[in-house]
Amino acid sequence: MTPPSTSDPAPRRIGANYVPSRGWFYSWLDLDPDAVRRDLADLAGIGLDHVRVFPVWPWVQPNRGLIRQRAIDDLLTVIDLAAEAGLDVSVDLLQGHLSSFDFLPSWVLTWHRRSVFEDRDVRAGLRTYVETVTRAVATRPNVFAVTLGNEVNNLWPANATTAATSTDWARELVSTAKAAAPELLVLHSLFDDAFYAPDHPFVPSDVTEIGDLSTVHSWVFNGVSRIDGPLGDATTTHADYLVELAAATATDPRRPVWLQEIGAPLPDIGAGEADAFVRRTLEHVGANPALWGVTWWCSHDLSRDLLDFPDREYDLGLFTVDHRPKPAALALAECIPALRRPVVAERPGLVCDVDLLRQPQRRAEVAPGSDFHRAWVQARSAGTVAIVPAGRSADVLRERGVVGTVPAEDVRPTWVDARD
């Protein structure tokens, strides 16, 4: 599949990360097709066009030499049920990490402990896994993408790696998946420390240079919600800020960005504030010409019968466990028609002294609450604004629709910091 450009007139993708209402991801151990069918009907009913699904790696490949056909068949069943509901599917391959838990097979743990990024044998096993699962899901016409995994950088530091190693690891597995299914989008997915943490061994270029398009995960519990409150500009523009950072960092000025995860987590966003948070966030990020699509986290709440999850994980769903749409679902549904329409916008650019592509050690200078971030939020309050790393050529700016630039130091924030 040829990756779309930011000026592609095709409608944007709007979907949900599928968290089963019965049994969370443990439901893969005992798949109930009727329960899945009901869940997917909820999502189709509010106008979504796709789901992102998460087979769990150690249950598919419990031994380096064994990939369970039953597990692959169950995955294909879920994909087929999505097709019945009129939903396309993106498949995450390496889980990996989900909702604060790491899921790793026994052959990389205990007496066999070895890094999933560094160990030669583990990487060989992963290549087999990625190739086998990708080939299988590519047989279904409603599958449009595979992602290496859900925030694989959460597996560090328990799994040793360096920036060079993690980049090589991702390039190797993306190439494996692409060879197995050239017609699919193949992606690499990381949480936002890749953009914000100076010493993190997964760097911005892993997001913006590897795979067919960039993906970002916007979570306001990273500290941004404490800057100006649950409905302040810093909070409701954070998704737009991450999309813009990814677009600005890419060497291809037309590389699209998929907002692959975003949610309204308690207590950062109160239950009575979720509706407004959804509307304001989507209005802001929907104005970004780099945006390719939005996938909400997540489809359904987590039952309180399941124990030991962080408290915020239980209430992130668009639907309750008994299939009632929540205010966030209704707000998302109302935003879909406008959000689907791609935009081509000319906008001013805010010049950033930090070039994340070449200076990842300076990531703290663009993290939430930094001087640059505060200046961008202030500039964004007047309308859409691009991020322009210093030294970008006029041709690149023109490709990104940037008309005129302003140094960040010339913008003086006037908004009140909620931490003061």
Shape: globular
Give the count of structural domains: 2
CATH architecture of the largest domain: Alpha-Beta Barrel
End-to-end gap: 49 Å
**What's the total count of β strands?**
13
Protein name: Cellulase (Glycosyl hydrolase family 5)
InterPro entries: GH (IPR017853)
Organism: Barrientosiimonas humi
Describe the fold and architecture.
This protein is an alpha/beta fold and about 425 residues long. The protein folds into two domains: about 15-340, TIM Barrel; about 345-410, no CATH class. About 35% of the residues lie in helices and about 15% in strands. It has 14 helices and 13 strands. The strands form three sheets. Strands 7-6-3-2-1-10-9-8 form an eight-stranded parallel beta sheet. Strands 12-11-13 form a three-stranded parallel beta sheet. It is globular. The relative contact order is 0.13. Mean pLDDT is about 95; it is low at about 1-10.
Topology diagram in text:
Blueprint: E1 13-17, H1 33-45, E2 50-53, H2 57-60, H3 69-84, E3 88-94, E4 97-98, E5 101-102, H4 120-137, E6 143-149, H5 163-180, E7 185-187, H6 193-196, H7 204-209, E8 214-218, H8 225-228, H9 233-236, H10 238-249, E9 257-262, H11 274-286, E10 291-296, H12 327-340, E11 347-352, H13 371-380, E12 386-389, H14 394-399, E13 402-407
Protein name: Cellulase (Glycosyl hydrolase family 5)
Organism: Barrientosiimonas humi
InterPro entries: GH (IPR017853)
